[in-house]
Design brief:
Oligomer: single chain
Strand content: 15-25%
Largest sheet: 4 strands, antiparallel
Number of helices: 8
Length: 258
């Protein structure tokens, strides 16, 4: 009969393998359940994890992880009761980094387009990274070619550099304006649930008083010029038993001021 440490190791790899090693053939039923549970979860996750209902995928994931540990611990304790020498519990701790990696990946990937703000953030990150192909995937029912996006970005970047150069000359280094870092002076402000304003801003020093008595100074953010307006809308991305929606880019309006 295998030792409890070996039983635990097998159970952590495949559900029911530890039980089957102890002579309980019903353990292989758990292996089938593992295959079905993970497969069904992946099918559901593909449909929901990118949209507004991505958190609905989290609870089944937690249940899978909890059951994974539970059946392994149950097999280990059973092996000990059958006369095996205790030991090997550290394998549970060694399994935790994998669990942490799964949860971390879930929170990074999940809900990328589950809110209007997250979609706009992804668009701005794609612009900063120079990835028009990534930005094109953020558009909804009216797709835009990556080359058209690249041309728009190039024109806006040229305008930004011009504004930053003149702004630096007018307001000085305290303004925080730097033509070499155009994205460092951009601010995205949500005007309405579906409308975001991208603005070029600077820092401005102003005089004030502390407690109304002690003169002091502070910095505030001042809009230099609007750059563009990003309009988003919520679109249905899956129907049927698991309907879901995601926020997509609808229109980019270039400001007359840019």
């Amino acid at each position: 009969m295998p030792q409890p440490a070996q039983v635990l190791r097998r159970a952590l790899l495949v559900w029911g393998w530890g039980h089957a090693a102890l002579g309980d053939r019903r353990g292989w039923l758990l292996a089938i359940i593992q295959f079905l549970a993970i497969g069904d979860w992946l099918i559901i996750a593909v449909q929901l994890i990118d949209g507004t209902r991505w958190l609905a995928v989290f609870v089944p994931l937690v249940l899978i992880i909890v059951f994974w540990f539970g059946q392994a611990v149950h097999a280990y304790r059973r092996a000990v009761r059958l006369g095996g020498a205790p030991g090997g519990e550290l394998q549970l701790a060694l399994f935790l980094p994998l669990v942490l990696a799964v949860f971390t990946a879930f929170w990074i990937i999940g809900g990328r387009h589950g809110s209007a703000a997250s979609t706009v953030e992804a668009y701005m990150e794609a612009w900063q990274a120079g990835r028009p192909d990534v930005a094109a995937a953020l558009y909804g029912n009216a797709p835009v070619a990556p080359q058209a996006i690249a041309d728009l970005w190039q024109g806006e970047r040229n305008q930004l550099v011009n504004h930053l150069t003149s702004g630096l000359a007018n307001y000085g280094n305290e303004s925080g304006l730097d033509p070499a870092r155009p994205f460092g002076s951009l601010r995205v402000r949500q005007v309405s649930p579906t409308r975001f304003s991208v603005e070029l801003v600077r820092s401005e020093r102003f005089e004030t008083t502390l407690l109304g008595i002690v003169p002091t100074a502070g910095l505030r953010t001042v809009v230099v010029t609007p750059v563009m307006v990003i309009l988003v809308n919520e679109e249905r991305v899956s129907d049927g038993l698991l309907p879901s929606s995601a926020w997509r880019i609808d229109t980019i309006l270039v400001s007359n001021g840019s």
